[in-house]
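Researcher: Here's a chain I'd like modeled. Treat it as a single chain, no partners, no ligands.
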Amino acid sequence: MAIPNKILKPVVFVAALAPLLRLVVLAVQSELGANPIEVITHETGLWALILLLVTLAVTPIRRLAGFYSLIRYRRMIGLFAFFYGVLHFLTYVWLDQFFDVQSIVKDVYKRPFITMGFAAFVLMIPLAVTSTKGWIRRLGKRWQLLHRLIYFSAAAGVIHFIWLVKKDLREPLMYAAILGLLLGYRVVDRLLTRSRAAARTSAANAD
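Model: Modeled as a single isolated chain. Structure tokens:
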């Protein structure tokens, strides 16, 4: 039995908001550790990446498992990914750098993991801006082409995580593997779609 949208939508919303609520509770209780800025930066960046991957996972899950109603929540999950990306970025430029533009530019230029993280965030901006129904209508087929930027944003996010960690790479490599599977699915699906189309064309020509 399918779960009604009026029930599932609030559940998805609360689940996506839960990591932020957890951070707020920990902050109020002064349990963010010795370096709270580092914890906030890590958690917001991690959840931006996780939700990007969840957004990419909607299509294969929908097709392979038959959960077709999941498509309703893809945009919401994607916007939450951007939301956490904004929090991650603001934590860095505000709490870490105190809006010191010169220091931020120097960081982006000289530290590769900062450069890659900045790139991942910038690539998310047009995705968030054009996520409305109005932009979908205005852009038409170009909308799908533009929203392929999510692949590059997710890849940049994974690389940012790998270059940040440096030593114990198990966690970032796990996300890299998930991204690889999600992208691999799309490549295989596209090849199979083209193969089936070619077979139908060949059969039609033979008739």
